[in-house]
Amino acid sequence: MDRSLRIGVIGCGFFAQNHLHSWSDLAEKGAQLAAVCDVDAAKARAAGETFRVPYYSDAAKMLEAERLDVADIVTRRDTHRPLAEMALARGLATIVQKPFASTWEDCIAIVEAAHKANAWLAVHENFRFQAPMRAVRKVIDSGAIGTPSWARIRFRTGFDVYKTQPYFYDEEQLAIADVGIHMLDLSRFFLGEVEHISCETQKRNPRIRAEDTATMLLRHQSGAVSVVECTYESRRLPDHFPETLLVIEGPRGAISLEAGCSMTVTSDGATWTEDASSPLLSWTAYPWHVAQQGVIGACGHFLDSLQRGVPPETSGEDNLKTYALVDAAYRAASERRAVEPKRWNHGLANGGERP
Ligand SMILES: NC(=O)c1ccc[n+]([C@@H]2O[C@H](COP(=O)([O-])OP(=O)(O)OC[C@H]3O[C@@H](n4cnc5c(N)ncnc54)[C@H](O)[C@@H]3O)[C@@H](O)[C@H]2O)c1
């Protein structure tokens, strides 16, 4: 597709601001932020005026009135299915923020709607697009540590996430669905698909409804094992929010990503350290810039994939595998056993769960 793509953003809340800035910054590469929409008319108007585009308080009206190529859905997960189905029914390329939807069945329904419409579908899973994660992936691909056989991937913070996202207090699922999902996606990105997962959850903050801490243990199909951790209740200082820290070991060496996006690689007995950080952009701010840069990285990847007419790395089908890990982690915690993630097989009458 050799032309600029007209993008409509649905949902202009807290995190959508990063999408709006990213699409604006990607104008030279062919992204045209064409319209915005939020059921909260004041938020729609603020975004429309800031980015100088038409604004709507009804997504259906925006899709009807604007000749869009892409719908970028940045609402919370309970609205993802109806909004995605509406956009896909019009044949629009559709991007859905994580978590993909409220249930496994809703995620499958969105993927099937894309198949039916023959439309391009992505899930905005952005952590793997952060500069340090791309740097780690590059080292793995170089073969410097051999095939990864063990990893520890962790997101541990006490940063007040409830201030910017007060709805977190009442979520029925919190740490795994909100941030553990990124850690689980990274475990797939670095170590491949998962055979089974066990999980312990904790609610350490008495003021919230769901879990704020999860400790997960994964056996990957390759035989690799990973420990995947997330918490919003760490009191450790310094607090490295919103950085993901990790260690990945292989037969020839190891990769260690420490605070400040400092990556140390050991290969065949030699060790070196690289700066894997990204520069501040005009609209990014410390300490959020690590995460914000992942958004523009993801948006840039989606734009490029669409222009080349290929599926994105985090297609709907790909993201079902990450969502299945989230679902399996919750089941593992409540059933106190290791659980195999569900798998989706296109066309299976049982909705994809393995017999
Ligand atoms: N990838 C990440 O790193 C990351 C970080 C934060 C949030 N998120 C995700 O972004 C999504 C939004 O989270 P948030 O914190 O910005 O929430 P938010 O509540 O601040 O914003 C959501 C907005 O959607 C609007 N909205 C709801 N229904 C709508 C509809 N039918 N049509 C148009 N607008 C509608 C709301 O009025 C609200 O302004 C969630 O899925 C969340 O998990 C992702």
Q: Which whole number gives the mean pLDDT?
A: 96
Summed up, the domain count is 2
- How is the main sheet built? 8 strands, mixed
**So, CATH architecture of the largest domain?**
2-Layer Sandwich
The tally of strands reads 14
- And the CATH topology of the largest domain? Dihydrodipicolinate Reductase, domain 2
Q: Give the ligands present.
A: nicotinamide-adenine-dinucleotide
Number of helices: 10
- As residue ranges, the low-confidence spans are 349-355
Tell me, what is the CATH class of the largest domain?
Answer: Alpha Beta
Order of helices and strands: EHEHEHEHEHEHEHHEEEEEEEHH
Structure keywords:
355 residues, alpha/beta, Rossmann fold, Dihydrodipicolinate Reductase, domain 2, 2 domains, six-stranded parallel β-sheet, 10 helices, globular, binds nicotinamide-adenine-dinucleotide
Write the layout of secondary structure elements.
Layout: E1 5-10, H1 16-25, E2 31-37, H2 41-51, E3 55-56, H3 59-65, E4 70-73, H4 80-89, E5 93-97, H5 104-117, E6 121-124, H6 131-142, E7 150-156, H7 161-164, H8 175-191, E8 194-202, E9 213-220, E10 225-231, E11 245-249, E12 253-258, E13 262-267, E14 270-275, H9 289-308, H10 316-335
Parallel strand pairs: 1-2, 1-4, 2-3, 4-5, 5-6, 7-10
Antiparallel strand pairs: 7-11, 8-9, 9-10, 11-12, 12-13, 13-14
Helix pairs in contact: 1-9, 4-5, 5-10, 8-10
The structure holds nicotinamide-adenine-dinucleotide.
Q: Could you give a short description of this structure?
A:
The protein has 355 residues and is α/β, with parallel strands linked by helices.
